[in-house]
Write a structure and sequence with these properties.
Blueprint lengths: L2 E5 L2 E4 L4 E8 L6 E7 L6 E6 L6 E3 L7 E6 L4 E6 L8 E8 L8 E4 L3 E6 L1
Length: 120
Amino acid sequence: QVQLVESGGGLVQAGASLRLSCAVSGTLRRYSMGWFRQAPGKEREFVSAISSSGGRKIYADSVKGRFTVSRDNAKNTMDLQMNSLKPEDTAVYYCAAGDFSTSTHQYTYWGQGTQVTVSS
């Protein structure tokens, strides 16, 4: 069984940076990993994904150039560096493990989420 725990969320002003981390219990290296987010009243949306080796990365257009995903298979962790944050980035952020995809349906394991709030 794989368990994921996110950390690093918080309240920041627009333009600031945050770094989210996802700690994984179990063997991380066999899974691709993803970040998703869900704002109040909206569907969960794709943010970024990284392949099992870390060789492939994809980003949603809304975060491209501002967010950077990385992983350390030796430490069983995945990070999301978020720069130049905007109020529209406000959401609960979830990490997930599964197949390399932008779709929530391709991810088997999910964390509980961490809140990111960006004030204007």
